[in-house]
Amino acid sequence: MKTILFRYMATAISVILSSVTFASAAVTPLPDPNIWAREYDDFYSYSTAILEYYGLPGFSHQDNTGAGVGNLDIVVMTNSSGTSNPDGFEDPMLSVSGGTSNSFEGIWGAGVRDNGPVYVSQLLDYMHTNFAPDANIPVFIFDMAEPGNSNQDLYVIGEVRIRDAQGNIVANWVFDDVKDGALDNSGGDYDWVLSPGIVSDGNVTVETNLGSGSRDFVVYAPEMNLSLYDIEGYTFEGLFAMKELEGKGEELYITSAFAAYVPPVATAEPASLLLIATGLPLFWVGLRRKNG
Ligand SMILES: [Ca+2]
Ligand SMILES: [Ca+2]
Ligand SMILES: [Ca+2]
Ligand SMILES: [Ca+2]
Asked: Residue 35 C-alpha to ligand 2 middle, in angstroms?
């Protein structure tokens, strides 16, 4: 109980401090990943089921508002064939149902599909217009749909790459289980990340695998600031792979519902300094208990 209280207080403080950055009420800023997320190489992954359990506002696990086909968001992978994206973005990848195959690998954005490739400037313009004027870091939602039995886990890896006009990779961000900035598949296999049907933070366990149409995991890479690559001809692509798939197909979106965490900036204002001074020990307690 103490841990829950500490974690809630720490996040309430960090949300208060960071919320002034966001003018739009529709966008929920992600809480401090050092407390609330798990780190997978260059990315952080939040479980909305865990965030909802602890009562963080804006993280209703089964509320899919702002996500999915038919909304403003950009669909990277879907289980609905024939789906197209807004504003001429490349058509989404089609995921697989467990009856078809139990593994998946595809690349979105590289021009493999109709309406590609995805240009960095095109993606940035869309995010600035439809998400927020300062939205430079894409935030992804992963919606898993596995059967409610002993097969409800799956495994996943990913890599986002920026290429220059000549096709050279100029930046990349990896989502896998070894923190080395590289997507290793030596020996013919990736360093897979477990995507569990039942999530745990070490203190509580919560069912997250409740079918298709729920925002199970929210993922972003803090260093993926696309404004640094807003150069003519630069393209954005994502490799995505999964295994041990059953049930319905999984889905992946670039979402307007959440914004990347913005660390609070200390000012000379006494009230802010007091909040930060109060918050630091709480962050430490939360981390220590989480890891211990
Ligand atoms: Ca789901
Ligand atoms: Ca599935
Ligand atoms: Ca499975
Ligand atoms: Ca790695």
From this structure: 29
Whether residue 282 sits in one domain with residue 193: no
Identify the pLDDT of residue 77. 96
* Count of domains forming the chain: 2
Enumerate the β-bridge partners of residue 94.
78
Percent of the chain predicted with pLDDT > 90: 65
> Looking at the structure, do residues 87 and 99 belong to the same domain, yes or no?
yes
Tell me the per-residue pLDDT of 159-189, one tens digit each, with 9 for 90 and over: 999 999 999 999 999 999 999 999 999 888 9
Q: Is residue 145 part of a domain?
A: yes
107 and 84 together in one domain: yes
Q: Give the pLDDT score at 271.
A: 57
Residue-number span of the structural domain to which 281 is assigned = 1-21+262-292
Provide the pLDDT for residue 290: 42
- In the beta sheet, which residues pair with residue 239? 107, 159
CA 197 – ligand 2 centroid, Å: 11
Spacing, Cα 209 to ligand 3 middle (Å): 10
For residue range 97-114, list pLDDT tens digits in order. 988 899 999 999 999 999
Are residue 136 and residue 12 in the same domain, yes or no? no
Is the same domain home to 251 and 284?
A: no
What is the DSSP annotation of 224-280?
--GGGG--TT-EEEEEEEEES--SSPPEEEE-SSEE---PPPP-S-HHHHHHHHHHH
Distance 202 CA to ligand 3 centre (A): 22
41 close to 180: Cβ distance less than 8 angstroms:
yes
Q: Do residue 5 and residue 54 come from a single domain?
A: no
Task: Output the CA 170–ligand 4 centroid distance in Å.
Answer: 17
pTM recorded for the entire structure: 0.82
Q: Which ligand is nearest to the CA of 249?
A: 2
